[in-house]
Specification:
With about 375 residues, the protein is an alpha+beta fold. The protein contains twelve helices and twelve strands. A six-stranded antiparallel beta sheet has the order 3-2-12-11-10-9, sandwiched between helices. Strands 1-5-6-4 form a four-stranded antiparallel beta sheet, with helices on one face.
């Protein structure tokens, strides 16, 4: 019994000291990481982790517009290769939209057409679109306006040359480290810290901005802070009025914020929604910014967004990934665990896949193999 008491006292002292060290070293965000992720059996962010963070609600459209079903709705069957991929990689939704109608849809693992799941980095496309909206409305002068005009922390040295367009095209030149599985990386800190603006304002310049593409979630987060300063509105409210409402979204959504106190959205990720509402943004870009005949977003801005900014990085434009496949040009929204909205304008096709993981070749190439598979098998289905 004495041994157990001593052990208990030791554990209390040990964990008390550990917690104190975390606070002293400003790494107490790890406590939140352990509580929300690791204690729940996960090693990284997961589809329904939004339930354990602070969120801001975004209401469904007051004029919801359901996608019509195609005349050939669900007449095709998933290919054997697609079935295996959906099982092996934990798909929760696979939807093909042809000519603005639902041509095929299927849901898995207890999820349905209205189930919420984390968008992860698909949110970056929305934020870039919100920048375009702010330019269209005159809140931001142009892609060339300095970030310094909005964020005083970036007014010195190389940072003074950084533009809002640099942020959207991932060319800030900062020292952001895109490391998802390192507990001490700034990416991990940003996901769990309760003062995200403080984290972002601490970034340093590594290279001259506007010179080359370097994928950095911090660029999108900074862009969100710029948009909020430019519009005078929280990003979730600006998102609601700019896109979620006019695009006729059928379901309310949630956007994670760093904390109730600071109320800054995790702009580089973390919109909880469903496949068919995510697909609406792909349709808006496919249709050059028009929705039901109304110009929601500037067509010139969209055309620029879905073309590479840098010739040496043909895979990225302004907030959108770009891929040539099957002899066709696709642009896509793309998220951490294999969240995708693929858009092929000439064929009038949108393919959405949401799931728990992507193919295991992560980190070995720009585009994981699952991306090609979901496109190829969708097209095989369409050909039958």
């Amino acid at each position: 019994m004495k041994f157990l008491k001593k052990l208990f006292k030791f554990l209390i002292l040990f964990f008390g000291l550990l917690i104190a060290i975390l606070y002293i070293t400003d790494t107490d965000y790890l406590l939140k990481a352990v509580r929300t992720i690791y204690f729940r059996g996960h090693t990284t962010a997961y589809l329904e982790d939004y339930k354990h963070f602070d969120n801001k609600p975004v209401a469904a459209s007051s004029n919801p517009q359901a996608w019509p079903n195609h005349i050939d709705y669900n007449s095709a069957k998933e290919t054997a290769r697609l079935q295996k991929a959906n099982k092996d990689w934990g798909s929760i939704a696979y939807v093909i939209i042809k000519n603005d109608s639902i041509w095929f849809e299927n849901y898995y693992d207890g999820f349905d057409e209205d189930s919420k799941s984390n968008s992860f980095s698909m949110a970056k496309s929305y934020v870039s679109g919100l920048m375009g909206k702010a330019i269209m409305q005159g809140h931001i002068k142009s892609l060339d306006q300095p970030v310094c005009d909005f964020l005083p922390a970036f007014c010195d040295g190389k940072a003074a040359k950084m533009t809002v367009g640099d942020l959207s095209s991932m060319a800030s030149g900062t020292n952001w480290d895109e490391a998802y599985y390192s507990p001490l990386s700034i990416t991990t800190r940003a996901y769990f810290d309760d003062d995200l603006a403080k984290v972002m304002n601490g970034l340093k310049m590594e290279t001259d901005p506007g010179q080359a593409f370097k994928y950095a979630s911090g660029d999108t987060q900074m862009l969100a802070m710029v948009i909020e300063k430019a519009t005078g509105k929280p990003l979730y409210d600006y998102f609601q009025e700019s896109f979620w409402e006019p695009l006729g979204s059928e379901n309310a959504t949630l956007w994670q914020v760093d904390s109730e106190d600071h109320d800054l959205v995790k702009a580089y990720c973390c919109i909880a929604s469903n496949a068919k509402d995510f697909a609406r943004f792909g349709k808006l870009y496919k249709d050059h910014g028009k929705w039901n005949g109304k110009q929601i977003l500037d067509s010139t801005f969209i055309a620029k967004s879905v073309k590479p900014r840098f010739s040496q990085s043909p895979e990225y434009g302004y907030g959108w990934w770009l891929k040539k496949h099957l002899g066709k040009d696709f642009f896509m929204m793309r998220g951490h665990l294999g969240q995708y909205v693929f858009v092929q304008p000439e064929d009038n096709v949108i393919i959405v896949r949401l799931g728990h993981q992507k193919s295991p070749d992560i980190g070995t190439k720009t585009f994981t193999d699952d991306i090609s598979l979901y496109i190829e098998e969708g097209y095989k289905m369409l050909e039958k």
